[in-house]
Amino acid sequence: MTRVWKCSGLRWSADGPVLVWDGGRSSALPWGKRVAFEVAEGGVRTCVGARGHACPVRAAVPGRSAGARCEECARLERAHSVAADTIADDPRPYHVYLAWFGPGMVKAGITAVERGSARLLEQGAVCFSWLGAGPLMAARRTEELLRAALGVPDRIPYAEKRAVRSVLPVTEEERAAEIEEMHARASALGGWPETLEREPFRPVDHAGIFGLAGLPAAVGEVTELVAGGVVSGELVAAAGPDLHLAAGGGVVVLDTRLMAGWGLRPAHSVGFTVPVRELRNRAGVQDGRLNGLQDGLF
């Protein structure tokens, strides 16, 4: 009997994206690799728990939930997150950054210095630059200053990020132009916390590691996995949690967060037999499902 695996999520390394599985197994994702799996027949998506602990009741969670957690586990997870402003005494230094996801899409954020650029890769930032580094609360105050004075948000919806990945400017200089201007405006502001050490503009570009050069526009995106459903396609790009998979009718985007909580196994069928939202009126997308390539293994 084929073993069923549970996905722990997509991780980014210096060599690119990697799918991580419960139990420690990992699957590197080089360009051109066939990603093909099916959801166990009769399976139910269950909560992934919180803070490294399993959900005590193994609660069922909706297929469209990106968090894959029940209400109680989601509350516990958020209660210990920096984003929720509940860890004011965290002694680690934090970076403040400006990230760019496409034209008109600049956001400000913070991340622990020890994490390097991992947070930016996880969000799908096409390019970014540090603004400064310092204690957590100084970094948080700087982030709030930028939002108030410059009007930059702290979140950009993934749907908006996905929509522009195939039409980004060609050169690194063009992609860095908006955050260069915003970095200069931010540096000229008064009111920066004294404990935050400012950093010069040094753009870091992720278009290469994401595989965005020549990326075709997506024709659809997976909205959820379902018991018995199949996902099969050739990896042509990845950014943040998203895999861009080429199938018979075009490129379909799979948010790997939708995989968490499901039992998955190698596919023996072909194509996409999970719900797919059509993004463009293209052949190959019919009745909310997209016909994929003719073969492929997980």
Specify the oligomeric state. single chain
Please report the number of helical segments.
Answer: 6
The average pLDDT is 89
Spatial order of the strands forming the largest sheet: 3-2-1-14-4-11-12-13-10-15
**Strand tally:** 17
Please describe the biggest sheet, giving its number of strands, its sense, and whether it closes into a barrel. 10 strands, mixed
In terms of DSSP E residues, the strand content is 25-35%
Low-confidence stretches: 281-298
N-to-C SSE series? EEEEHEEHEHHHEEHEEEEEEEE
* Helical residues, percent: 10-25%
Can you describe what's shown?
The protein is of the alpha+beta class. The protein has helices spanning 71-79, 118-123, 136-150, 158-164, 172-187, 207-210; strands at residues 5-13, 16-21, 26-28, 34-39, 93-102, 105-112, 127-135, 197-198, 204-205, 218-222, 230-239, 242-247, 250-255, 263-266, 276-278, 285-286, 289-290. The strands form three sheets. A ten-stranded mixed beta sheet has the order 3-2-1-14-4-11-12-13-10-15. Strands 5, 6, 7, 8 and 9 form a five-stranded antiparallel beta sheet that branches. Strands 16-17 form a two-stranded antiparallel ribbon. Strand 11 (230-239) and strand 12 (242-247) form a beta hairpin. The protein is globular. The two termini are 16 Å apart.
